[in-house]
Amino acid sequence: MGSIEPPTPLTTLLTSLVPSRPDLTTSILPSLLTALSTIASSLRTAQNVSPTSTTNTFGDAQLNVDILAESALRAALSQCPSAHTASSEEDPIERPIHDDAANHTTSNSETYTIAFDPLDGSSIIAPNWTVGTIIGIWDGPTALNAPPRENQVAAVLGVYGPRTTAIIAIRFHQSQEEGQVIELGLTDSGGWEIIRPLVHFLPSDSESETEPKYFAPANLRAASEDPRYMRLVTNYIEKRYTLRYSGGLVPDVVHALVKGQGVYLSPVTASSKAKLRRLYELCPLALVVECAGGRAVDPTDGRDVLDRPVGGCDERGGLVCGTPEEVEFAMGVLLGEK
Amino acid sequence: MGSIEPPTPLTTLLTSLVPSRPDLTTSILPSLLTALSTIASSLRTAQNVSPTSTTNTFGDAQLNVDILAESALRAALSQCPSAHTASSEEDPIERPIHDDAANHTTSNSETYTIAFDPLDGSSIIAPNWTVGTIIGIWDGPTALNAPPRENQVAAVLGVYGPRTTAIIAIRFHQSQEEGQVIELGLTDSGGWEIIRPLVHFLPSDSESETEPKYFAPANLRAASEDPRYMRLVTNYIEKRYTLRYSGGLVPDVVHALVKGQGVYLSPVTASSKAKLRRLYELCPLALVVECAGGRAVDPTDGRDVLDRPVGGCDERGGLVCGTPEEVEFAMGVLLGEK
């Protein structure tokens, strides 16, 4: 069975959450975590990513780190018999992982498609800000045209900062919104330890007036042409919310998860097009946010990101996510209802 | 002479810049860089900093990392005979570094006071965002009541992100604004290599309309009571500037340095008091920004940060810094002249 790992506290926890998916919990997730630690190592010594001040000439060095991340993930998946299909933001086409794909499909009761953004946050790599990896794991030989809430069974985020952390979100059962989010940390010896077995947004009644509230307004240029977005931003300022916006999707969403509250906004307007990829960015992040008790919606109509199948690998959208209360308030303003 | 290091490309470069300061370039700066790599190691395995969502209960774990950083810097300085006095944001009192301080003062032609913020960015350590160390190096046995532009001869920033980088700013001569900023990276083998020997803001005529321009509005809550700050922020949005604001002083200023342009704003209003410490934060950052060809001013009157002596270890202020053009524009709006 290739790279099945010996039981660790993590695999024991994962297996207890979804006992019906042994390949996911003992092969695919451990292999992906190994890839994240490889990516962290690559980044730590990739000093040549920083020598330039323009994004244009910055291309080559940047590309090297992206390719290293892409290779680490594909190498990890090639060790997993039940990993059938892969596609990536760097190569947005679904391809079989194994040459003898037909055999793998029939010989395993579990069959997965893995879609990933190997290194998100290219614009903030040069200044040495935290960046991340985003991975969605789907049931079956394709992620396309399938109901995301049912078929996307797990998501993994890699967070490369002063230390290396990871977030795993896993659904307990198909067709349900329940699930669990676990925070992991990479240890000195290269293993992953559980930092928090249960990451969850704080209940709204625990919010006090003295605790800071956070907002992360992405694509803020859009506020110049969308009076509702501008009104929403000035509203947060007037209510004395604390601004935190790194421009990296993973650190920005993880900030809200770790603080237990917050809202991330990436609206779409006529001239500020939707930029976030539904397959590689929005669906995995939405799974994490929902499993932590939050909401992730399409800002154009307020529908849950996971309500709508992904029609193609390059399909894009906007995002509003965070605690249910914050998302409801933001969407009320953005849709002109408040 | 204690911990004088064998010549490296870095010490060779530093010595060529300030040949009259051998202790600074071969003892103090290398020792401080060693401390930064120790802090980076401590942070990398400090997984227990993230388990809580509130800043109050977060205190203890946080304190451990702060103390480790403080200890690493003090241990490094104890190896440097010409390092006479130290004070830190964690212990804001100037104290002699060596027990036999009188002897050290008289036996060395160089005598330095080192003031540092060992770990800046406590609120963003839990979500694993980039944080930093800030160090100012002053001529003589005290940094207080001395002219900063003349007496603060060097500054060091440690940047702990996906990789570990450092910024060194050094004045060529006292009483001049000239100096040089060098970017370093920590290598796999634990040494520091020169990433960019000359970090400098881009000349204003190189800015094109197609390149993104950046702004980092700290203390944004102040805009709720200061119409000028609100007007400045909406002006950036309307001019389609790109927002990047991590809330960490080091990563936010380093972002502008690496991109070659940008503006950082931390105004002061009646109810949003000045928060940044002049000795541990503002003066070292101002030295870096000036040596890179930028400006760093007090937002209350537009005077250069380095024009005004530091009267006490806990003195605080606001900050506007970045390219000269951006600082001039921002101050025009904040002082009501535009």
What is CATH's topology name of the largest domain in chain A? Fructose-1,6-Bisphosphatase, Chain A, domain 1
Instruction: Describe the global form of chain A.
Output: globular
Largest interface: A-B, 65 and 65 residues
The overall number of domains of chain A is: 2
Side by side, the strands of the main sheet of chain A go 2-1-3-4-5-6-7-8
For the record, give the distance between the C-alpha atoms at the N and C termini of chain A, rounded to a whole number.
56 Å
Count of helical regions of chain A: 9
Account of the 3D structure:
Two copies of one chain form a homodimer. In chain A, the strands form three sheets. An eight-stranded mixed sheet of chain A has the order 2-1-3-4-5-6-7-8, sandwiched between helices. Chain A has helices at residues 9-17, 22-44, 59-77, 101-107, 148-151, 227-238, 249-259, 278-291, 324-334; strands at residues 83-88, 91-96, 112-120, 131-139, 152-160, 164-171, 179-186, 192-196, 214-217, 242-243, 263-266, 276-277, 295-297, 316-317, 319-322. The model of chain A is unreliable at 50-62 (pLDDT under 50). Helix content of chain A is 33%, strand content 24%. The first copy, chain A, has 338 residues and is an alpha+beta fold. Chain A has nine helices and 15 strands. Chains A, B: Residues 81-106 are annotated as: Disordered.
